[in-house]
Structures are given as structure tokens and as C-alpha cells.
Amino acid sequence: MKRISVKLLFAMIISFLVANLTFVLFARFVLNSYIQEKNLNVSAYNLLAFGLISIAVVIFVLVFLVLIRSHIRYLKEISEQVQKISNGDLGATIHVRGKDELAELSQNINKMSAQLRTKFNREREIEQAKNELISSVSHDLRTPLTSIVGYLNLIKKRENSDDETLDSYLYIVDSKANYLTDLIEELFDYTKLTSPDFKLQRNEVDMKRLLQQVIGEYEPILKREGIDVQTSFACEWNVFIDVEKMVRVFQNLLENAKKYSRKPSVLEVNQEIQGDSLVISFTNSINISEKMEVEKLFDRFYRGDESRTDANGSGLGLAIAKQIIQLHQGDIRAERQHDKLTFFIKLPLTQESLENHK
Ligand SMILES: Nc1ncnc2c1ncn2[C@@H]1O[C@H](COP(=O)(O)OP(=O)(O)OP(=O)(O)O)[C@@H](O)[C@H]1O
Ligand SMILES: [Mg+2]
Questions:
Q1: DSSP code of 294?
Q2: Per DSSP, which regions of the chain are E strands?
Q3: Cα angle 71, 72, 73; round to 5
Q4: 8 Å CB contact between 249 and 281
Q5: Does the global pTM surpass 0.85?
Q6: Mutation test of ligand 1: which of 260, 263, 265, 290 has the most ligand atoms closer than 8 Å to its C-beta?
Q7: Cβ(250) – ligand 1 distance below 6 Å
């Protein structure tokens, strides 16, 4: 039985008893003697009886109200707080008193209020992130576009320019246009990956084979740049991943190693087990003088050395990689030790894989 109905029933019984008692006492000691003395007629008697019953009813109501006044006050308090919440004071709470349905109601309202506040804050954060993205995108799009327009104007005028100069202008326009295409494509991918309804196409895959395949394709390219690849893989371990997206992560790490490593140097790729996870690491050498904020590497549009920005990438590669790894319930982080930079990718192993290796 619900507590509040028990309390109301109890209050009703008490009020009924008090009203009855008053009725009986009043009738017995006051009216009795009055009726006997005055010898009343029927209508006066009825009037008196009606008055007496009315007094009993009023007493019943009064006693009932006194008994339930704390609940009424509590209800008022709840209603005031709900009004506050509805007026935008998200997170406003009600003091929970007792254990009855009203306390339960207050608890639920508090929970709802907290959830509304979290949701509201989250939406504000998303809105802010979107605005930031738009402003950094406009900045990143404007810079190459300005130089494309500038060089095109020079080409159009053909003022004191020989074929060689025109060719060099065309080369710049071409590379800036390619950079813009890549940036727009990456931006498109990034927004797709961060949209709430994006779904991975996951399959069970042997990570060792996948890594060997991707690295095999990159090895000649890296070698040409003076980078030797050394690998050390634990035995075959299965992970449940979206192969296309994971390859994208590895390609960006390998491409970064190609672009930003000290040359000649060695790129080490390792794969090992830590608890229930598979940890893949990529370690490359960098110049000891290279300034870099490791914790910012995964930020959108972060590029370590601003002097080489245009020629290289958009600064979205690692942000995309982080998003992909997080969608796999994994983790990616970077660590710098002197002239070595290591990227660690942690991915959960499949249950089956864990059982097979027990
Ligand atoms: N292996 C690495 N060694 C040294 N610096 C690195 C390495 N990987 C990343 N960085 C630094 O981190 C920055 C961000 O890398 P990220 O891959 O996100 O962007 P990007 O390579 O500039 O562009 P994108 O990958 O979008 O073409 C790079 O500009 C570079 O300064
Ligand atoms: Mg990159």
C-alpha cells in the first residue's frame, strides 16, 4: 500500500474521531440541558441539529488540514521548484523529505532537472564546438584561396612574366587547389565521423595481418624518404574493427612519420597485449629542437611547426584518428621522450580471442 494513502487515511480517521468526539460531548453536555430546559419545537430542534453537524464537519476539515499541512507545504515547495525549472533554472533541486510518494516525486524531479542541465550544457558545448569549427575552417579555407586568387590575378595580367614564372605560378595554384580539395574531403569525413548517427562496419580481424599489409604498402615509400621500418608483433590477436577506418588511422600515422620524422631514422611499430587490450605503438624520431605540444596533437587543425603548415597537411589527420579509435571504444595518445615520439593505440580484444589465448 502506498505510504501517502496510509497517511491520508490515518489523518481522516483521526479527524473523524475528533469531530465525533466533539459532536458527542457538545450534544451531551451543552445541548442536552438546553433542549430539556427550553422545550424546543421540531424546526428549532432541526436547526440546532444542523448547526451541530456543521460544527462537526468544520472540525473534521480543520483537524484534517492541520494533520496534512506539512504535506501541503511540501507540495507547494515542489510546485515552486518545478516552476523555477520550467523558467530555465535548470539544475534547481528540491529538498527530499521522508520516504513517501512526494519524496519519490522530488527525487525524480531532481533527477530530471540534473539531466536537463547536463543535456543543455552538452548542447551548448556542441554548439560552441560547431562555431569554433566553422571559424577555424573559414580561416583554413581562406588562406589558400587568397593565394590562389592572388596568383590567378598575376597569371591573368601576364605582366612582365616569362613562361618559367607563369609555370611556377601555375604550380603554386595547382598545389593550393589540391590542398583545398584534401582539406574539404577531410573536413567532410571528420563531420561524418562525429555525427551521432555514424555507424562503424565492424568485422573480426587479425590485427597482425592487417598491420603487416598496411606497413608493407608503405615501406617502399618510407624507405625512399630515408626511414627504415622495424616491426615487432605479438602473435595473432583478433579485434572487432571497421577495417577501412582503422587503415585510415594507420595511414595517417605512417604518412605523419614520413612527413615529420627526422631523416634518416627508424620507425618502430610494435604490437603487444596489456590486460584485455591490444596496444599498437608507432615510434619515430624527431628533431630534438622540435617544439610540440603533445597533448594538443589530437586537436583539430593543430599543426606542430607553423612554418611548414601549407605544404603539409590540414591538421585534421590525428583528430580523425582519435574519433575513429574512440568509436571503437579504444584510446589513442602520444608520448614524447627527447627525440622520440610514440603514438599508442589501445583497442579492446574480442572475448573469443582472449579465451583462445588463455
Ligand atoms: N609522427 C610525427 N612526428 C612528428 N610530428 C608529428 C607526427 N605526427 C604528427 N605530428 C605533428 O602533429 C601535427 C598534426 O598531425 P595531423 O596528422 O593531425 O595533421 P597533418 O598531418 O598536419 O594533416 P593531415 O593529416 O590532415 O593531412 C602535425 O602537423 C605535426 O606537427
Ligand atoms: Mg597527418
A1: G
A2: 203-206, 227-233, 238-241, 265-274, 277-285, 331-337, 340-348
A3: 90
A4: no
A5: no
A6: 260
A7: no
